[in-house]
Amino acid sequence: MGAVTPLGNTFEETWDAAVKGKSGIGMLTRFDCTHFSAKTAAEVKDFNLSDYIKVNERHRMDRFTQYAVASSIMAIKDAGIIPGKTIDQERIGVSFGTAIGGIESFEDTYRDLQEGGYQNLYPFSTTTVISNMAASQVAISLGAKGVNTCTVLSCASGSNAIGDAFRVIQRGEADVMIAGGSEASLTPLGIGAFCAMGAISTNPDPKSACRPFDKNRDGLVMGEGSGALVLESHESAIERDAVVYGEIVGYSTVSDAYHITSPAPGGEGAVRAMEGALLDSGLSKDDIGYINAHGTSTAYNDRFETAAIKTFLHNRAYEVPVSSTKSMTGHMMGAAGAVESIFTLMAIKTGLIPPTINLHTKDSDCDLDYVPNQTRKVSIKAALSNALGFGGHNTALIFQQFDGRY
After folding, report:
1. Which of 41, 119, 212, 332 has the least C-beta neighbours within 10 A?
2. Is the Cβ–Cβ distance between 130 and 119 less than 8 Å?
3. Domain for residue 406, yes or no?
4. Cα–Cα distance measured from residue 374 to residue 383, given in angstroms and rounded to the nearest whole number
5. 205 contacts: CB under 8 Å, gap ≥ 6
6. From CA 57, how far away is CA 65, in angstroms rounded?
């Protein structure tokens, strides 16, 4: 696994901060936000690109692509894989998601056009902007010559990229897939659009701005970064004696077919996604010991996701701990599902459930066990991660402990 997040510049740093209940949210510094209603964001901090990308290659990559390449290099090293040596290059694929893509490069390119016409444009302007460049540059950087796909499904993109990679390996089309999501949309257009929508928190205090499931929540806080996971077939991993964090066993993605921004009443799409992932996994609801919620800190999401979990788990809904790690990372958009999959796997492996911070005031519509403010030690056999996106996308992934047996 590899990660670049507001909590840390590796997945280890990110996980350590999460279990300590730290917040990666601060004042927005990427641009002058004086005239914006949102003043806070979860920014990546002090990240050294030189460790991962040569100076003469950076200008060809938007920030979201840079994050994707860096997290993927970390992940492939963590996996102990050397493409072309330990695994054939043709048997290594890439599946990477993003919600928005190269929006920073888009804004820069438009400004150049306005100032000097098309003759003033950087020759590779197009390839810094388009969303598939994260997947493409990851493959180029690592020499992965197998299946290469890009998932663009709003805030479910990272989760879908992982689920799709799972399917590629199940079909036998690859032995290894580098999968995840990346986002870097803390720009005037990126922030401004959410301000205009009224979906973003206007709380000026970064420590309390993101408060999923709390009665006083007032919107999401935007974040950025990337998460990457190496998925590998059981046979390949055992053959090379790989270190295994866990096993992906269930994946489902469905549509609300209801509204472009609002979840369907009762979260019925999320219910079907969770049910589908459970059916795919072959597990029972009694096996689910933790849910990493989408938990955006918006009125609609938190209420409808809570309702969906109740419908899904029935009488166990109040017994299963649920937490929103977005309370610490902010909403990383297309990267969210990937980073939250890392949190879910680490919760299974370590028995530590990261908390929902800033949860102080109960909401009658949000009355589950959200692991408020303090990490909890439990034993988890299997856990579920939800990802819900604008346009009615609902995705669920289920992971479980890996014991090496089949």
Report:
1. 119
2. no
3. no
4. 19
5. 40
6. 11
Residue 327's Cα: distance from chain center in Å?
A: 13
C-alpha to C-alpha distance for 334 and 338, rounded to whole angstroms: 8
| Other Cβ atoms closer than 10 A to 111 | 11
Residue 396 bridge partners (DSSP): 252, 386
Residue 162 belongs to a domain? yes
Active site residues: 155
252: in domain? yes
* DSSP helix/strand/coil, 214: coil
pLDDT above 70 coverage of the chain, percent:
99
> Which residue bears the tokens 């659009």?
193
Residue 405 inside a domain? The answer is: no
Q: Are strands 393-400 and 382-389 parallel, antiparallel or unpaired?
A: antiparallel
pLDDT of 354-379, one tens digit each? Answer: 999 999 999 999 999 999 999 999 99
What end-to-end distance do the CA atoms of the chain give, in Å?
23
If DSSP states are collapsed to H, E and C, what string results for 327-392?
Answer: HHHCECHHHHHHHHHHHHHHHHHHCEECCECCCCCCECCECCCCCECCCEECCCCEEEEEEEECCC
Q: What is the mean pLDDT of residues 291-296?
A: 98
Measured between alpha carbons, how far is residue 265 from residues 200, 271, 306, 396 in Å? 21, 11, 11, 18
| Domain total in the chain | 1
Give the H/E segment covering residue 253.
strand 247-255
Contact 224, 139 (CB under 8 A): no
CATH code, 128: 3.40.47.10
Q: What is the pLDDT of residues 11-32, one digit of tens each?
A: 999 999 999 999 999 999 999 9
Is the four-CA dihedral 363, 313, 393, 100 of positive or negative sign? positive
DSSP one-letter code for 331: B
Closest CA to 93 of 3, 1, 175, 182: 175
- What domain range is 297 assigned to? 2-400
CA atoms of 403 and 214, how far apart (whole Å): 37
Please, which pLDDT band fits residue 405 given cuts at 50, 70 and 90?
low
Question: Minimal CA–CA distance to 341: which of 15, 7, 6, 13?
Answer: 15
Beta strands 176-183; 92-97: pairing state: parallel
User: Cβ(89)–Cβ(144) under 8 Å?
Assistant: yes
Tokens of 255: 């549509």
